C-alpha cells in the first residue's frame, strides 16, 4: 500500500453495484427526513455510516439490503477499492451527527455527547494514521 497517496486507498475491495444501491437507500432516507422532519432516519443513517466506516461494515443494514438486491437481480460484479467509500462514510457520519446536534436541543446534558463525539474522531484519526491511511 502506498503511504504517500493523497486519496484514501485501502486494501479492501467492494462491489461498486452494492455501493451505488447504498447511495440510493441513503438518498431515500434523507428524502424521508426532509418530508417528515423526523430525526429517526438521520439517527439510523448515522449508526449505519459508523458501522460502514469501521470494521463492522458486515452489520450495516443498508449494506446487507444492498447485497441482497444485487444477488436477487443478478447484477454483474464490478470490484473497486473501498478506500474512497470508507472516507465517504466517515464524512457522512460527521455530517449526520452534526445535523443531530442542530436538531436535538442541547442543554448542559448535551455537552458530554459533544465530548464523546470529539473523542471518537480523535481516536479515529489516530487509528487511520497508525495504519498509514491518513
Secondary-structure topology with pairs:
Blueprint: E1 13-15, H1 16-36, H2 40-53, H3 61-73, E2 79-81, H4 83-103, H5 111-130
Antiparallel strand pairs: 1-2
Helix pairs in contact: 1-2, 1-3, 2-4
Architecture overview:
The chain is mainly α and 134 residues long. The chain has 2 domains: 13-103, no CATH class; 107-134. The protein has helices at 16-36, 40-53, 61-73, 83-103, 111-130; strands at 13-15, 79-81. A two-stranded antiparallel ribbon has the order 1-2. Helix 1 (16-36) packs antiparallel against helix 2, helix 1 (16-36) crosses helix 3 (61-73) and helix 2 (40-53) runs antiparallel to helix 4. The model has no long low-confidence stretch (mean pLDDT 77).
The gist of it:
This protein is mainly alpha-helical. The chain has helices at 16-36, 40-53, 61-73, 83-103, 111-130, and strands spanning 13-15, 79-81. The protein has two domains: 13-103, no CATH class; 107-134.
Notable characteristics:
two-stranded antiparallel ribbon, globular, 134 residues, mainly alpha, 2 domains, 2 strands
Mean pLDDT: 77
Biggest sheet strand order reads 1-2
Overall strand count? 2
Helical content class = 55-70%
Series of secondary-structure elements, N-terminal to C-terminal: EHHHEHH
List segments where confidence is low: pLDDT < 50 over at least 5 consecutive residues: none
* Number of discrete domains: 2
| Main structural class | mainly alpha
Question: Could you say which overall geometry the principal axes of the C-alpha atoms support?
Answer: globular
How much of the residues is beta strand, in percent?
under 5%
For the termini, the CA-CA separation is 12 Å
Q: How many alpha or pi helices?
A: 5
Sheet having the most strands:
2 strands, antiparallel
Radius of gyration: 16 Å
Amino acid at each position: 500500500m502506498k503511504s504517500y497517496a493523497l486519496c484514501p486507498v485501502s486494501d479492501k475491495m467492494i462491489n461498486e453495484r452494492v455501493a451505488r444501491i447504498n447511495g440510493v437507500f441513503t438518498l431515500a432516507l434523507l428524502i424521508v427526513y426532509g418530508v417528515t422532519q423526523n430525526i429517526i432516519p438521520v439517527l439510523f443513517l448515522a449508526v449505519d455510516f459508523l458501522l460502514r466506516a469501521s470494521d463492522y461494515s458486515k452489520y450495516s443494514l443498508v449494506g446487507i439490503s444492498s447485497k441482497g438486491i444485487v444477488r436477487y437481480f443478478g447484477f454483474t460484479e464490478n470490484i473497486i477499492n473501498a478506500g474512497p467509500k470508507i472516507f465517504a462514510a466517515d464524512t457522512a457520519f460527521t455530517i449526520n451527527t452534526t445535523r443531530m446536534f442542530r436538531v436535538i436541543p442541547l442543554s448542559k446534558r448535551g455537552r458530554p455527547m459533544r465530548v464523546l463525539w470529539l473523542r471518537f474522531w480523535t481516536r479515529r484519526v489516530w487509528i487511520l494514521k497508525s495504519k498509514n491511511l491518513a
